[in-house]
């Protein structure tokens, strides 16, 4: 048998290569260097195929068929790649093939001719890699040169290599390939074990290892992936055989023990059992040696492969091995691989690690063995639950931490950090944490009374029978949520000023605690307690128990149930989520195909919820009327009321007037009493629902009368202040009057959404002695003069709020007036049609003339503010109001033109109204859009594309008031810092946060304090991103509507879509959808309802004509109300990995024990979204240092150019 290649054989092998020998020789050296220890180990073990059926090698003749074609082919790019037939490969493509029969057929062929069978097997793997170049019989015979042969095949194949090969292809023909391949090798090993070939034929596994091991160290990913999967599958089946052999050994040992205990043992049976035991033990030792060998030669190198799919395959199978054979693999030397790959740069690989660990932790038998591993990597798991950029990984990690908490492996600090994720912006994370919290709360409540003995506890419960046991649950939940808020938010003073101001301008309809409550209820919190019990606890006066709780024991007992003011506020917010969660749960159960409850039961449950809620709201309002925050939270509950169900309930109980005479009176009282914007906004929402919703028709008239009276009272208070203010006043006089103006003005602005404000706005500031009033004495013109005067000064926060409130109020008034024109035209058209007489009287024309003049003046004033204001936020508000007003004008002209006669249209002076936007103003509005777009992108850490007109937009925005732009850096305004176009570094807060971040990058895992700081930073960024997204989408929606109305040129509208793929889903929905011309008053952002793809919607008109009296006009409102969405925070840092050839591994430091020490792992976890081809070359290895140096020089040059 020859041990070296003859010149003829070498020539035949070289014919596979289509390049010069020197080229593939260099490539071959790369392959050897990438895993030289594998090759040397393989060559030292085998010099060729060995076994009982091996034959002497014959001298190889000249190569024919495919090889001749390969040698003679020209370099024609259109020539199809080479291919060959293989019966095993063809069978794997058949989804209905019998894998057992194929495996048995191959085993039989192996018995008959080892060389031919082995050639078919190797060619099957080659074709499974997408390679069309087969090995021949003489290649199999010359086993010593297996590595060289494969290297030459790879060199020739690399020109035809594709990223898509059968194992990972999504083509329909390969759908069943992967499961069939895995099943095939399981059957091969199992059948070989049954036939004895696996143990008796020494060359069976050795021959496979010679070829497959060389493939696992290939530079081509398809070779590495396929061969690695084959080895992993073989090792899995070896584990199963090891289990079977252990069972056989136990069985034979029992037989031997039983026979030896007999007085007259059966020698034949005893000898047979001893031989079977000896054989099974020998086979088991062979399996152990083979498993260890495969693990050391394949897994140890491929678990750090540069291809993340191979790493995921390895770690998945490692978990399977531990589950099947814990006696062998469930050891610290194998567990550590899970810990190292927790820092993998690929999200799905980390996900596989977590999933494998979850299965292993779920086995109670593994608890003790996991103690050391948990101590070492627990902090990493907690960190991943907070900061991992892959939501699937975070959710899976939280579920795993729940298991750790049940076992008792989590510390209290860890539980607090995980609990704080209940305020996360991602719904899937909140849902996972809710299950964690429900389990934790249930366990803590069980031990809440352990400090009292049985007799004491029984006596205390009898003495304080008014205390409900469920109150302990709510008390513990409140304390837990308070700690979570502290961890999530940190010091409120650390939140940026402009973010707080934006929160004031855009108050959220659903608080984060409400969303947390809804998630908790969905996770099963309702099984622990009922929310009406919480209402009773909120209404209970715990001070009444002071006279009974005189001893320290009784005081401690009462303390378990008593809640303070801070607890009450948190529980009121959570109550909204509980009620909403219970309603949603019933609707979900009713809406499923397989209904869990009948329609009748669902209706009864919903009615009971509505009755309890309607009864609770007035009581809660009276009890917490002293606290503005609590009042606002209670009035949010009105949003969940179904007024139609409430009406039927009131009719049944005989309290038809209870809604208007009790509940509405309390709301009106709160509106008058409090001046905080959160209360005023919520009162306005209650009024709006009670007057415009379809289920409120029975109450609408009575409620509207109360609101009209309230409106007159508020307007009288405002006029009383304005009458003392001159038309022109300096800044000091304006500042002195701001507090007295802002409260009634804000209330008037909110009420303008609900009732017609024309009469009040056109009333004089004070009664004139002559009985007549001029325009200057009317409230509307006084406010217009005040707006012009306030716009002249440098705005601080209060002046900004003043300008915004006046702008919104005047816009609402103009829309009510324009809406009245439509009504006037409709009535005139109907009268003319019936009588033939034009009914547009001089009085009507005078009113219309005033409408036209005022609207024109207001449009001009808004254009002036957009052009000259020093505050970008005021510019933005004015721009949105301008767009709304002009769209309304165009809608009014269109509707009136379709109703009135040409003479009436002329007399109505509609065409005197401005209905277009100047080109310069359009560019300024687009400049504002660019500011908001960039502010969002900067916070979200995304790169945007620039449009051809972007410079013109910015120039127009800055040119109007260059002096104001130069002072924006020190403006301190509401939104200016966010929208500043300065290219300088972030402010001091960001620098401080980055410094904290950089300080933790040298540690393996963030410390508790560092992790809390990091989590707070992420939370603040999420909130800031949420607000910026809402602000951007508001302006974008109005620009989009103006574009539909042909007010803004199409070239400007097309700019909106330039970065649609990079911005939020809400932005994409607005830009990519035809937005209705009618909408509601803008409201604040709400937390996202779904995850990675957040949902958004635009609502219809806030004032439905069908819900109004016939003599009341409808305001022409074109604003849109959007739900908000939030993008996931992408953390900027990745874990420390080092690249070595075709491998990627975690940077480790050898400890004293000789095991890798993970204390130097970079703690940051980030999903790298990049194409592998950008990292490796065509051969699957990392590019050399010369390319890195070139990239460094290019990057440095670019930085210098930028500077």
TrEMBL record:
Origin superkingdom: Eukaryota
UniProt feature, compositional bias: Acidic residues: 974-994, 1125-1142, 1152-1162, 1170-1193
Pfam families in UniProt: HEAT_SCC3-SA, SCD, STAG
One Gene Ontology term, aspect cellular component: cohesin complex
PROSITE patterns: SCD
Start-end of Low complexity biased regions: 20-33, 1090-1107
Biased composition (Polar residues): 1108-1124
GO biological process, one term: sister chromatid cohesion
Molecular function (Gene Ontology), one example: chromatin binding
Region (Disordered): 1-87, 971-994, 1080-1203
Domain SCD: 299-384
Protein name in the entry: Similar to Saccharomyces cerevisiae YIL026C IRR1 Subunit of the cohesin complex
Organism annotation: Geotrichum candidum
